[in-house]
Design a protein that fits this description.
Number of domains of chain A: 2
Strand order of the largest sheet of chain A: 1-7-8-9-10-4
CATH class of the largest domain in chain A: Alpha Beta
Structural class of chain A: alpha+beta
Number of strands of chain A: 16
Mean pLDDT of chain A: 89
CATH architecture of the largest domain in chain A: 4-Layer Sandwich
Low-confidence stretches of chain A: 4-19
Largest sheet of chain A: 6 strands, mixed
Largest interface: A-B, 72 and 72 residues
Number of helices of chain A: 12
Distance between the termini of chain A: 26 Å
Oligomer: homodimer
Strand content of chain A: 15-25%
CATH superfamily of the largest domain in chain A: L-amino peptidase D-ALA esterase/amidase
Order of helices and strands of chain A: EEEEHEHEHHEEEHHEHEHHHEEEHEEH
Chain lengths: 421, 421
């Protein structure tokens, strides 16, 4: 993933969570349609309209060949005019399309702007799908005509379905908390189901809240929340040309106001955004292409998070580890070898404990005394596998880091061999 | 791979090559046997004996959790006593076996030493196979008893077969040249067939020559030759716990003498070792597990080789690129996206040309003008795919770098899911 990030703030729990269905954020309108960009006939275009007093924050891919819509969205966010709409198409990424790709985005955002009475700079465009194909602009135009007609309070479920590509499940998370009698609502949708690492298909996520917050404060929160969610499911900085995460707060008269960083409400809101982002990220991992197992890697006793990421990258990206997981084969040596291949000088056979779930595989210089092939098989058969590597480190400040990945199946190869055909 | 490397010397062509079958290097004796380490009944133990006046050079894995035999071989090479034998077992890597693994190696090398009248320090042990399993030491002992009985001029073909694990083909390369009437012979064997990157199964290679050369000069050559061969088939420094490359020159009265670095013979010998190593490395790529296609990546116009390695790592390790190759699907955007995901600041959409074979896919800011889906399909159907990325760079000193990889097939997943079972 590797979306941009800046801040790191201590967490707090929100004070009250109520689990009933939230249908909408006041003022935010949705529409979806089938513009025919996909071969399969299903919705492939999403328009989200929000009032101009909304606070909009976004983080984008670090890919050096970012898609045309990413470049335009970034530019429009810097414009003095306040954003008021998001348009997302699936099926075609409009990346690797050069000057024509940019012209196409300017054309359809201008067209949409006229239809909804704003300037093109107020529209944030996003795309996901095949790279190096041009958008069929006529289909986009007739799609937009449909969208503006149908712009109303359609469901977030439909919205999340319209942005899917190889996803097998749509991804929506909603939550609300009541703080001092004021309702704080949050609704997030996401798409993405690629193998988490090393190659993730485009991740898009759009999160809406009804908070009253400044852009400066919200920017702190978006960076922090991406860092703690989407950037932890990818472990080697891989990024698609189109990855984007947008956080929009649309306040009403009754909104919770977040005044400054010391405000109790700031911490509650921040935690809520992090929670929602983590849940969306987790849904992406769970929907890994062809994945049958979920891998959680916990590394402790390492002072430098960069070193943890190097280790995580080696283990989570190891095709040998991934295929062993897929086969439920306790080929534990592959984990051991992947760890050593990180070439970090502090790794010595005597200074770490390696566990799979609660089974000790390696115990400071020798194979775990209670380890047996049978016990290994028992653990590897589970759907959720936790690999825990604990380095013996006297420095109690050394933190614990978590990463997520999945197995590699024949279905993954199948899905990705046939994606365009 | 990432074996150690130090030097970089300009190449020259050898003056005369004769392609007839070389059967042996005088004084070098081989034996293979089935010690029963493998479930399948075939040779799994190899002994190579060579005279004590031989010059022995070796490079080893940089994996921080290197196998017991690697640690002992390294130590024995530093001993004052001259090496005179190599023993290699397949099936079990003796890595992740801690103190017991080391004790096992000392036990069986000592046992072998008594049998062939030398010290244990004169024996270089190597292993390849499953990690985190102990060697069945009784089987090793009875295997050694067989080996020493049969130690004679058996074939290099048999030797190369005894060290195979998931290899589908054994790997032997031989060559001889006549220089000023003196015959220079070289015979190399190798094993290794893992997906080249990101996770290569153990690579072992043993190369023998009849040259008369000092250890100091031969060390220059081994480093240079690994750098130009095995280290170029792996692109992200991944290393197994057991990777090793050994170069042994056993001189006779009639040997070509290599006196110093300015010697004509030095350059001929050096080129011969590089050629043999490249051929062995290429055989490993060709034998990629489940591979149906060979990918050659050529990057030009980049001044820093490290940057080329980062780009190569992204493209050669991209599961999306690998599955597209496997499906013969010209999903060219995946190559474009993988390039951008390297996050190198000099990459801009307008400053490079991307070709698949001779077909221009991307031409400084736009899709190649003569590109069509049909033409893409034609190129992607080929067994050998060359991806060429040429950066527009006015600095004529910028070098061209080549990397090798292969596709990802369902068979790869199948092979690696079932490796131990």
């Amino acid at each position: 993933m590797a979306l941009e990030k800046n801040t790191n703030i201590v967490m707090e729990k929100s004070n009250q969570a109520l689990n009933y269905e939230i249908k909408k954020i006041d003022g935010v309108k949705l529409a979806t349609t089938c513009a025919g960009l996909k071969k399969k006939k299903r919705d492939d275009l999403l328009l989200i309209f929000f009032p101009k007093n909304s606070t909009v924050s976004a983080v984008f891919t670090k890919n050096k060949l970012a898609a045309a819509p990413v470049l335009i969205a970034k530019k429009n966010l810097l414009s003095k005019k306040k954003s008021c709409a998001i348009i997302v198409n699936s099926s075609i990424a409009n990346a690797g399309t050069g000057k024509k790709g940019l012209e196409d985005v300017i054309f359809y955002t201008s067209y949409l702007a006229k239809k909804i009475n704003c300037d093109a700079e107020q529209i944030l465009p996003f795309s996901t799908g095949v790279i190096m194909e041009y958008l069929p602009i006529k289909k986009m135009v007739s799609g937009i005509n449909c969208l503006v007609k149908e712009l109303s309070y359609t469901s977030w479920d439909n919205a999340s379905k319209a942005i899917m590509t190889t996803d097998t499940k749509n991804k929506v998370v909603k939550k609300r908390v009541i703080i001092d009698g004021i309702e704080l609502k949050i609704i997030g949708i996401a798409k993405g189901s690629g193998m988490i690492a090393p190659n993730m298909a485009t991740m898009l996520s759009f999160v809406f809240t009804n908070a009253l917050i400044s852009k400066k404060l919200q920017n702190i929160i978006i960076n922090d929340s991406v860092n703690k969610s989407f950037n932890n499911i990818s472990v080697d900085g891989d990024t698609s040309t189109n990855d984007s995460y947008v956080l929009i707060s649309t306040p009403s008269d009754k909104s919770l106001q977040i005044k400054n960083k010391d405000d109790k409400n700031f911490h509650i809101f921040r935690q809520l955004v992090i929670d929602i982002s983590k849940k969306l990220a987790r849904k992406i991992v769970d929907d890994g292409e062809g994945a049958t197992k979920l891998l959680k890697l916990i590394i402790s006793g390492v002072e430098n998070k960069k070193h943890c990421k190097i280790i995580a990258s080696k283990i989570c990206n190891s095709l040998l580890v991934k295929t062993a997981l897929n086969a439920s084969d306790p080929n534990i040596g592959r984990i051991y070898s992947a760890l050593g291949s990180s070439e970090l000088s502090f790794i010595k056979k005597d200074n770490f404990i390696l566990k799979v779930n609660d089974l000790v595989i390696w115990d400071k210089g020798k194979i775990g005394s209670s380890y047996s092939e049978k016990k290994g098989q028992y653990e590897f058969k589970k759907k959720n596998i936790v690999i825990k590597i604990s380095f013996i480190n006297k420095d109690s400040s050394a933190d614990t880091y978590e990463f997520y990945s999945c197995d590699l199946s024949k279905e993954y190869v199948e899905i990705n061999s046939n994606y365009r055909t």
